[in-house]
Each structure stands twice: as C-alpha cells, then as structure tokens.
C-alpha cells in the first residue's frame, strides 16, 4: 500500500545524504519530480476510493430501500442477531411496533426488555437447536414489546449467516412477522371447539336447508342420535308430535327473517320419547355477512320444569293438608275481588279456627294432631262448594273464600253448614275419633273491606268474637268488634300482671242439701279487680286466661286459696263443709293435675273427700281419652268430681257413666226456665232420674225462686245452689252466712 507523500520525500533525502552539491541538486530535482508523480498517484487513488465508497453507499441505500419496500409490503421485519453479543438489528419494524416506532432499531436481545421474559428461555432454546444443526430453520413464536408498551406475538424465522473458523454460530438473520391476530383467532377457534365439545346443552349446527353438519356430545346424549347418524339428516327428525307443522313453519319463518329464535319446544329423541327443551336458534354468517349456518342450543328443561312445578306447589300449597296456603289464598282472593267488582257481586271470607286444638294436639301427640288437621281439612272441603277456595293459613287456622254471593245471609248459611259438618267426631285413626268444633268469623267484600288483607283481618276479628261467645259458633264482622279486639288486648295485658299484683280473690257460694236443708258446702268462684280496669267478671277473663295459657298459674292459685280458706273454716269448727273448685280444660290436660291437687291438699291439711273439682261436660267430651285418665288419677287422690253446666253440651248420661264422676250440676239455663218451659221441666226431671239410676249426685244451679225450688224438691234433686239461697260471698261473710243458716234453715241472704 502507498505511504503518505511527505514520508516518501523524507526517506529519499535520507538515502542520498552523502553526495556533492551538483549531484545533490540533480538528485533533489529528480526526487521532487518523483514526489509530484507520487502525490498525483496518491491523490488519484484517494479519489477513486472515495468514488467507490460513494457507489457502495448508494448501492446499499438502494438495496435497503428495496428491502424496506419488500418488508413493508409483506408485513415482515428483517432482523440480524449477533448471537454472542446479543446485538440485534431490526429493520422495517413498523409493521410490528406501529408506525410511530423508528424504522430500524438496534438493541441487545439478551439484555434489553424486548422479548417477553416468559418466552426468553424458549427463544434461546430455538437458537441453540438451530446452531447445533438440529433444525433446518430457526423458527420461534414469542412476544415482543409493541409501541404501546404491550406485548405482541410474532413469528421469527431465519438461518445461520455466519460461523467462526471453528464452526461456531456467529450471526443469525431472518424475518419476523406479526401473528398476534392470527394467534388470537386460532385460540378463539380452539376455545370455541372445546366449548362446543364440552357444553352441557345439546348443540347442533345445521346448514341453511336445516341439515345437521355438526353436533356435540351432549346432543348425542340428549337426543340419542350418534353424531355419525345425525350428520346429513334433516333437523326435523327431532320434531315432536306435541307441536303441529305450522308451529315449526312459523319458527323457521322467524329464523329466516330475524336470524334468531328462542323458546320452549318439545323435542323427540331417537327412541321416540319426548323432552321439553329451551331452544336458542341463531344464524351464523361469514366474513361478508352472508348466512351460512344456524346453531341450535337445546337445554333439556324437563327436570327443571318439574322441579319448578314442585317448587311452585310448595310455595302455594300446604304440604300437610294439600290445601292452598296463605300466599295462594291472597292471590285467589285478589282475583275474586276483581271479578266481584266487575260483576257487582259479593265475596265472603270465612276465617275458621278449631276450638281447643292446642290442647288436643298436646294431649294426643303431634302425629295425631296432624291427622286431625288433615281430617278437618277434608271435612271443610266436603262442607263447601267445589268452586270455593279452602286454604290453610297455618296451625289450626283455615279460610274459605266464597264468590258470587247475593248477600251476607248466604255466607252465614254456609258457615252453619260447616259447623254442622263438624258435629260428628273426626276420625284420627281407627281407635281415635275426636270431636272438635270450629269457631268461624265472616267478613264480606264490599260491605266490610275492599282489599284482601283487610278482609282477612276482619274475618279474624269476627272469629275471635265467636270464640269469646263460647266457641262452636259464627260471627259476622262489624265495626264494634274492632273496639272489642282492642279491649281484649288491653284486658290480656292486665291479666298477665294480675297474679303478681295480687288482684285475684275468691268468693264462695253456698250449696244447700235438699235432704236435710243444711249448707253442705260452697263453690269457690274467682273474682278479679284489676288496678287499671276495675272489676272484671269471670265470663270475660276466664276464656282469655284459657286461650293465653295463663289459666294454669291462676288455676293453681285458686286451688291453693280455696283449700286454705276451707282449712280455716274447718279449724273454726265447720269440719263438715266441702268446697267445689272449677278447673279449666287446660289444667285438666296440661298440668299434672292429680299431683298438684294431692300436694296442695297435703300442704293445707284438707281431707281429699271435702274437695270436689268441677269440669264442664264439653271439656271432658272433647278430650275423652285424656280426660278419663286424669279423672281416674283424681279419684285415686280421693277428691270428688262434678260435671258442671250439664245439659249445655251434647253428652249423653250413658256416656258419662263411663267416667269416674260423682256429681252432675244441671246448668242454670234449664233451671231458669223451669217453671215456664215444659221442655226444660221434662229434661230436668229426666236428668235427675237417670243420674240417680247411675248413682250420681245431682245439684241444680241458679235456683232463684221458690217455685223452682219446689219443683226440684219434688223431683228428688239432691242439692241446690243459687240466689234463692245466697249469691257468692266474700269468705268472712260466707262463713257468717253458713253459721247463721245452720241455725235458721230458711233465711235467704243478700250479697
Ligand atoms: P259456674 O261454675 O257454672 O258458676 C256458676 C255461676 O253462676 C257463677 O257465675 C255464679 O255467680 C252464677 N250464679 C250462681 N247462682 C246464680 C243464680 O241464682 N242466678 C244466676 N243467673 N247466676 C247464678 P260466675 O261467678 O260469674 O262464674 C261464671 C263462670 O266462670 C263459672 O260458672 C265458671 O265456669 C267460671 N269460673 C268461676 N270461677 C272459676 C275458677 O276459679 N276457675 C275456673 N276455671 N272457672 C271459674
Ligand atoms: Mg262451677
Ligand atoms: Mg255451672
């Protein structure tokens, strides 16, 4: 190669340094010419070099432009990787990184965060395998950073372009292509296929002529058609006989027009059985929006429908009796009201509650109680018309809704039919027949209320009134009842406090023996003076105390207080006196009555034979089995038992004979009319005769006149009680009265 011209001159002068001046000039001039030649040659060479370089650069630029064009039109980028350093040059990267990215970039593939970290190991593996000659092409799919800081899937393909002397890989080069959209589409397609395959719903794809082109496993399962059998078949193989041809025609029409249809449809399986399906039919279009297929997704809802129906049943019907429940009742009542408004007719709501059901349930057990409710439901349904709604609201509460009534009297008549329907005992099982009575309250649309809730509320109020009137009866709602209901609530609140506040006391009504005209005993009668409400009669508070269960505590107090008073009188020399004590049905059935009585007798020191417990005949008759056991227990304790208010119920004397009782008290209702009413005369005479023949002691209650007394005496009645002799008296006055009376046989007292 040429060295610089200055260097050449210097070395020439050094060569000829020892020569003379003439010679020296010659040499110098030659050298100068040579230098010029050299200089020119050097300049030429330099210029040529520059030109070559220029041409090369132009050539390279042209090449690059061509490559850029190719890359841009193909969507590919060109890359070159120095495998050892990791230096990566990319050209035409815009197709990947977006138009804002620089056209060419140089980065370090191994260090810069360009390739997704999760893909790096795989990428290196591809490089290595290709370097080792395991693959003909380097081929890798991985993610690189895009212009927005996200990642894009690319596919890079390339080959070794340089190896070192030892054959080791130096450079790789190739192209990279954006496969992001492709990959997403592929993935979507894969997912779609998986979903199609694994869907629980039967899915089928049909062509525009409705022939199956694809079905999934669920389709095979649900329809019984194997895919191989179904493909190519018309979809009408699934048409069910439940729908006519027009139905399918109509659906195809909608589908052709709207591209979608959904709804319930019966479908036929291969074996001919049918199922109810929820069907979604949708069109499938190609990239140009042209319809190519329909997809049908069928969900077998036969089971679901059945479950739904069961749920609806459970939500609307009472499971024990099968009667509509409260919610269905309100629905029906609402509809009845709407109809009645249109037609100008009446709707009656009968609210029915079984009397003393709680006690029966407790004494017979819940299983028997349930059977009883079922029997009562059946009895109710038999008593009303087929179009009337009988519902159970819960517990022992029932409702009847009657439509198209001309007037309130018709509702009352129906209620009476129901009452007489309950006159015969209900069969609980082969061994048990239990008599139970209903109390019925009636409200009317539009007379009393316009909406279901009010009608129910008022019928309920009327029912309570029926209970208060002695049960087993009907009451039609009136406004005064609301006041009555409020009064009851106040009364009950006061009653709850009465025992603790010591507001009770006993009065005693003497009983006179007609055999020897002597007072043989008294009946203890409960009195209540409420601090807030004043004196309240037992006819008002006893039923309330029974309903609320308060009677249990009150009754025990009465037993103890009566025995204490009697014991006091015995101690004062009146040891012959006995005392009658009223017990209520709840005490008979709930409290261990015999034990309670025994322990109170022991506590007060009263001989058992001096106590007589009074139970009403209805109370005993309604709970015969249980009552019988308790009465036997009481007999064992040694106390006497009387049937109070005899004649007001429906028991027969013959039946009463089965009971361990001692006394019958003829109700004052019969005695009151005794002298005017020949029937009452006959009944009273018969009762006395029959009772005697059964060995029972007879007491007549409510004797007020000499005439009554005379008649009873004539019939051989054993004892009387009533205002003729004495009203109930405070203990001290009762004792004084008895003392005086024993001395002077015929002097009636005043209260
Ligand atoms: P009862 O056991 O039949 O009592 C007789 C009722 O007749 C008493 O009413 C008494 O005052 C009344 N009476 C007595 N003589 C005559 C008369 O000549 N004419 C008329 N018209 N009435 C007469 P009272 O005291 O108002 O008691 C009513 C009912 O309350 C009692 O009827 C009884 O069933 C119940 N009762 C009273 N005290 C108790 C009690 O301590 N426990 C229970 N469970 N019930 C009681
Ligand atoms: Mg009594
Ligand atoms: Mg009585």
Short descriptors:
binds ligand C2E, eight-stranded mixed barrel, disordered N terminus, Beta-Lactamase, alpha+beta, 26 helices, binds magnesium ion, six-stranded antiparallel beta sheet, 47% helix, 5 domains, 751 residues
- Quaternary structure of the protein: single chain
CATH hierarchy: architecture of the largest domain: Alpha-Beta Barrel
CATH topology of the largest domain: TIM Barrel
Bound molecules: ligand C2E, magnesium ion
The biggest beta sheet is recorded as:
8 strands, mixed, barrel
Provide the number of structural domains: 5
Give the % helix.
40-55%
> What is the number of helices?
26
Tally the beta strands: 27
Strand content bin: 15-25%
CATH superfamily of the largest domain: EAL domain
Specify Rg, calculated over alpha carbons. Answer: 56 Å
Q: Indicate the overall shape.
A: elongated
pLDDT averaged over residues: 88
Q: How many angstroms does the end-to-end distance come to?
A: 159 Å
The CATH class name of the largest domain reads Alpha Beta
What does this structure look like?
It is a single chain. The protein has 751 residues and is α+β, with helices and mostly antiparallel strands. The protein folds into five domains: 56 residues; 110 residues, 2-Layer Sandwich (Beta-Lactamase); 108 residues, Beta-Lactamase (2-Layer Sandwich), CATH 3.30.450.20; 161 residues, Reverse transcriptase/Diguanylate cyclase domain (Alpha-Beta Plaits); 240 residues, TIM Barrel. 47% of the residues lie in helices and 24% in strands. The strands form five sheets. It has an eight-stranded mixed barrel with strand order 19-20-22-23-24-25-26-27, surrounded by five helices. A hairpin with a 5-residue loop joins β15 and β16. α14 crosses α15. The termini are far apart. 32% of the residues are buried. The structure holds ligand C2E and magnesium ion (2 copies). One magnesium ion binds next to β24.
